[in-house]
Amino acid sequence: MLQRDRLLFGTALMSRVYISARCKISHLSRSVFMAAAVLGTTQIAIAGPTVDQLSDCLVKATTAADKTTVLQWTFTALAAHPDLKGFSSVTAEQKNQLDQKLAQVLQRVIVEQCSTQTKAVIQAEGIQAVGEAFQQLGQSAGEDIVKDPAVRQQLQGTLRYIDLNKLVTTFLTPDIWNKLGVLREE
């Protein structure tokens, strides 16, 4: 009787852990796919403290309209790639307008609002590090865009075609099960 109770408890616990893990992996999958979709073109760099300070200033200095301009320009720039061209109907005039709008935003935040931090980055780490500081702004704008329900729905649409059971069984190794409190032999 005691062994049967342990088995039932273990099965119930495993089921809860499995469901919890599956939900977490599902959430993780969504996050990974969203991040890859939105930020897949950015280069991750290890920044120094001056770059971090400039990044923070850029994020704080940009308005919602500025972030929209950054996203629209990024979309247009990516749409110029031969593999993506067929998915966009951006005109040359729209591209030109976005180039001008982005230039205005960049000049305002770098020269007027974050000039002290920009100077510090150039002196400490060189001009290329200014570009690295914009990664956080791009990430912030990307996070804002994935909050839109239509964008979230599109990004989550991929999950219909991913075998979540395979993800769970692949990544929930006996060692991880044991760390979750479910003892399993390897």
Which helices and strands appear, and what pairs or packs with what?
Layout: H1 2-39, H2 49-61, H3 64-79, H4 92-113, H5 115-125, H6 128-145, H7 149-157, H8 164-171, H9 174-179
**Cα-atom radius of gyration:** 23 Å
* Helix share bin: over 70%
Low-confidence stretches: 1-45
Count of helical segments?
9
Number of strands: 0
User: Mean pLDDT, nearest integer?
Assistant: 76
Structural class, from helix and strand content? mainly alpha
| End-to-end Cα distance | 27 Å
The amount of beta strand, in percent, is under 5%
What is the helix/strand order? HHHHHHHHH
The shape, in one word, is flat
Largest beta-sheet characterization: none
Describe this structure in words.
- It is built from 9 helices and no strands.
- It has 186 residues and is an all-alpha fold.
- Helix 2 runs antiparallel to helix 5 and helix 3 (64-79) crosses helix 6.
- The model is unreliable at 1-45 (pLDDT under 50).
